[in-house]
Fold these 4 entries.
Entry 1:
Amino acid sequence: MEWQEISGGWVLIPRQPIGILHFLGGAFVASAPQISYRWLLEQLGKAGYVVIATPFINTLDHLAIARYVLNRFESILDRLQGNAVLPSRYLPIYGIGHSMGCKLHLLIGSLFSVERAGNIFISFNNYPANRSIPFVEQLKDTISVEFSPTPEETQELVAESYQIRRNLLIRFKNDEIDQTLILNPILERRFPQMVSCLKLPGNHLTPLGQELNWQIGEIFTPVDAIAQWVQQGFSRDLKGLKQEILWWLNPLVRKGKKFENNYSEG
């Protein structure tokens, strides 16, 4: 299974697909999701999910970005279906976003008519421009710089118009810029009992992690010990994230299985 560039997006197609994931990454790493999120996305592909990752360049107009990535996704899907690359049977479609990608999926689910079996929001972030873009704070007295829609407008829009009923929210224990706890009650009020919220080990960059292959020399040194410790921590957090996503996508897989680490809901 190899990455394919199709109609401006990056696609993974397993041999026997069981679902489709539309992935959107964070603001400063979204231009190459097939690289920055490679390990996580490839693991989801190996589990049987078609991964369609649509790159984007961040601007102040988040609505325009949401419209663009949705158009790219639908063009790719139409091409895959038209060329009979995907099976003719129904495949559920899920949105999955990290950081700013969460906001884009919220806008898509609030403003456009889309069919989604559910959405997954990882490390939701909806800060204003002066907290999100370097040096903007220094310009606030000379020019007005803000995202469109603003964070407040986004929250109001989701509260009034968001249409995707089933949702998974994931935040990490060491993530200081996560705003999942703001989003959770908004979605709960809109769709009671349909929102799951998890707090997992890791930080804001955990979804970007890659498995490292640290080569130990003939003599085991303190540097080797530190490298192995760091590698094990990243690997454990990343694998835990992957497992929780797969369990939520297909709850029947979780039945009767235990994962080696404990992850708490919160």
Entry 2:
Amino acid sequence: MQNVAVSVRGWQFHRDRYRGPSFSDTARTLEENERLSLEALQRLQFTMFREFAEHCFENSPYYHNLWKSRGVDPRDVRQASDVSLLPIVPKQDLRSRTEEFLTQKIHRGMTAVHTSGTTGSPLTVYFSREDIGRRYAFLDRCRRWAGVRVGDRRASFTGRNIIPQRQCGPPFWRYNAPGKQFLLSSYHLLAQNVPAYVEALAKFQPDIIDGYPSAIHIMADHILRAGSARPIHPRAILVSAETLLPHQRETMEAAFCAKVHNQYASSEGAPFVSECGLGRLHVHLDSGLVEVLDSNGNPTPPGQIGEIVVTSFTTRVLPLLRYAIGDAAIPSDGASPCPCGLPFPTVTAIVGRVDDFLYTPDRGLVGRLDTVFKGTPNSVVEAQIVQTSPDTIVVRIVPDRPRYRPEHARKIVQELRSKVGQFVAIEVEEVSVIPRSANGKMRPVVNLCLNVLPSAFQYGSKSDWAPSTVQTHHTSPAVTE
């Protein structure tokens, strides 16, 4: 009966997302745009930006009052460089003044999307039917670039609460028949449950595996360690909503014999960034504007980490225009086009949330910490690095008991020390499970003291993770340095 209920809801989702003229018209336009030159796409993007800015100014009290108070009018934006005249919108404004952003009254024809945000302070945003169709046309483009399409059999690791949290035994999944979608809970991936997940996935044999990379990685890691009674070979693995780490990609591709395709967007409605067949991240210019800025609000030089500020053309009800979304990226030099033939520009990497960085007295802002675990001999199932105070970092690890040795923890501390410097204490805790946030995500790096970050990195909200969400079992401190 629950599968029937999931399927009824799935049919409603499918109808709203894919059956309307907004989806089909946009999908055709997007294919046509892929045949344009980069220069033509940039002109199209600027035209769309001007129209979207005028829509915000005329219909959103927040943007109208903000720009009036700064003496700015969208007509002042006459060329691409003039975009910087418009002020950056901090995330806390969208959270605390949501009603002022709205361009029209909320009604039943709209779709409400709930984001987890900081624990205890969720955010609800709204999309029109037209914008929902447009956004799913962009998502369909991401799938098309990966060689799959709407209607293929999907196994999705979801943050939705499809299974009671108290449930201890399988099944940890439900089936959405209209969407040909096997929904698997991300909340029940404990070591003792993973074999049942693998068996169910092997029986379903998906064309696509999608969802959180941390959840899919647990499955892939188990398959490489213990095997699967039947090979699971999807045509593509599509991941989003979390930072994809290099070791996760390597493990998933080895276990499933399929290419991993990374994608960036957001529940609030950010523009799309996704990988082509060659694995390079392309910015969908026709979905919006993605700026990567330094601490002074200027474009970040290629190869350096900067904060992402987004303008999304598919957010006409609750518009995002120069919105500091709280994520960070590394821009590319853009000197040469991607060999894949797509005209869209690339970014080198999406490196996570700005509060996924540590900050230490002698090294400053520290990111890209996945290499800390590379020297560990396949003995750590999952790990999380948490800055608990300005001078303390805790490394939580889920050890693979038959393989794990105390010297592996010392190796991790040594590698982390080389990244963060000498003026912070590093502690290691062995745990049986790393807690997920309210929407099922696993954050590999968490900074619980955002006040130590540079002011430019404090636009956004605090971490999705908070101590009250931790449910640690059999915790024992393994190493303290």
Entry 3:
Amino acid sequence: MTPEAKPYVRPAFGKEEKVYFLKAAALILVIYFFRSELYVMSRFFLFFSPFFFFCYVWFKSIHSGDRVLDILKEHITFIPIAYTEGGKKFFIPKATVLLILFNILFFYLLRLSSAAAIEFIAANFSFLPVHVTWWNILLSPFSSMFLHAGAGHLWGNMIVFWAFGPAVEERVGTGKFLFLYFVTGLLGSMASVVIFRIFLSETFHALGASGAIAGISGVFLVRCYFKKLVIPLPLLGLVNIKLKVNSLLPLGLFFLLDIRSGIRQLTGNASVIAYWVHVGSMVAGMAIAARLKLHGAAAEEKYTEVGLQALENTFTRLDGESALRAALELNPHNEAALLGMARLLAATRKPEGREFFQKAIRLKLRSEPRQAAEIYKEYMDTYNRMLEPDLQYRLAGVFYHQDDHEPAARSLEMVINEPSTNDDTRQRAFYQLVLLLAENNLLEAAHYRLQQFGEQYPGCELAKAAEIKFVEVLKK
């Protein structure tokens, strides 16, 4: 017996992704070992950045034909805060915003307290507490995440959190995001306590949100590794240039520098910074994200973005097709990739394009029926052929609910006239078409379809029901 062939499934972390990470790792190491020289060069670059930037804008304007003002709007910002590129247009990161607001509110309310109260809270709610009791050992792992040593400590953490938090929350959901935030922060704090006890025989008392933020950064490294980080660089003291860098670079450097500083801390270099909390939380974030298989969703999203962007350029359309097919190998139900492939193949009217359109429309009908109807109109402009009968029938209902009766009637007629339509679907199409035509006062057409219905399916209950409805319309 010949075994049934199974469709090829692309691995979520295949050769291309491994090469991508190896290149990023090599660049991170180069920057790490030559950071002093690069720092000197960066000062030179920043000094001449206005000149370089305006040259770039001028050349791009000549090459693309766009106005200089439009290019400036695309590449400058008045907001001096780093953030992750892309994302949904109207997504509000509720958990990220609430955590930031709560940290800020708690910090400034605490500053209104007396010195004795602040000392009591710091001693009992950092992790580990200075004086361990049964109640503060339970509360301190979480309360310590909302305590900060000063305004610089607070705002530095919140700025980093805003750069990476919304991107992660958008992709994993608010509930899972909060779970990852607290669990990775807890694991990082516990790792730091264990390391200090083993190597220094001391108890480390950590406070601050940086551990939980490092944990979310670890999740980001797995789920959003392909995203660009937009870093605002001051331009003439008025606005900021949007410098887009691979997000792996700053996070990788942060991780290496924390390990280096953490090792120095264990060899006697006194420091109150929780380097091992950062390292432990980031490792925990990466491990949990990998366990949840978030890298598969990341690769799918990356291929989809690369493919759709490549389709916009005639010279990179083949690369776009390859990337979209890779995304569909990871997830055959990727709506954006299916629609991208459909539009690509529709340009040359390839039959395969019809299949992609049908798959995209079928999926959209479940989530966004109105958009499914728009995609159908786009499909008809290219192929001018009906879809599978059951799909065409469902679209007729969408058009009807949108008060777009003409395409609804045409869809029902196509279903009726298609030889491959099964009897159940054809009977329902007859019934709906008779009612639709009568409702629009097309009584002759409705009567003709009613007669046709009765002739094809004598004694059918739906045909009798359609006749009753038709008579009711006539009486009105």
Entry 4:
Amino acid sequence: MQFSVSKNLLLSHLHKVSRVAPQRNTMPILSSILFELKDNKLTLRASDIELTMSSVFEVNGIKNGSVAIPSRLIHEIVSEVDDGDIEFNLQTDEKVEIKAGKGRYEILGRPGQDFPSLPSLTEINTVTLENRVLQRMIQKTIIAVSHDELKPALTGVLFQVKKDEIRSVATDSHRLVCLVNKDFTSPEYEREIIIPIKFLSLVNSYLSSEGKTVLSIGENHVMVEVDSTVIYSRIIDEKFPDYQSVIPNDNDKMLVADVANITAVLKRVSIFSNKITHQISLILNREMSKVKTDDQEVHSAADESLDVEYTGEELTIGFNADYLREIIRNVDTQKVVIKVKTPISACLILPENQNEKEEMIMLLMPIRLPD
């Protein structure tokens, strides 16, 4: 393999794919980036087995071939050389000579054929979404994705493709976000898949506000192509919880609050909360509601009144302040609607008004307060 390429062009594509290459792995070759030259097209590919990313661009090709080069090392040297062309020459199956300016560098790589092959997508169906719709579905649900690897079904976002709507749902057992987009049709294809959060975050970072994105869904993998970059991910093969059964429909006590005001109060009061539980109490009544916390371990306490509208019987309910604040900030409207029933039942958090052809439902479990 032999080619030359401008430093800045190569570095921009290295930045992309190196986000996928893990630095520590049971398979050392996964810490490398595959360089594969065919005529004047160079493909860079990185993989952690679950996620694969490839990027193709034009270079001055001299001799076809492939080699896997350590990600950290190649990224560092390309970053540090002066602007201009860089020459690559694969002298053996593993030894790579790099020339840039007055410098000459040698890197020991691995044979390209040892690098994991691209995922094979079978039984492919496609779902086309406006970029702004896909961005919103990702951004609104990822806050509720679990990081507990012992519950793999919860480490991704459930996408439900239906004939006349598409849903994205995430939960970590403490909170849940469900976003329904009804400005969507899929008359011939319906499916439920759990897509890993790492893939969705990566895709989201490449989406422009305009245009459309095609999700190619196979039996075990999902793929997205953005310009010259292709991202593959394995679908999480687990059963997602029956989330609809836990969404209450009889919460009869309602709190309406200004989003900016209540999040500011929660932030101030939570400074004095326990640093592990972040527990605060919402004391709700029609005359005056307030937020309160008391950390007996360090003898700190705080309370602040809330300027809210509350309808219902007097109620005291506990929450993780960080969870509550984050989920309220997920609301786009000026005011947030919070519906509760008892101190131990799920709480519904909704925007004051739903967007046209959209429904967003959020749920937060309370913390049981000490007697």
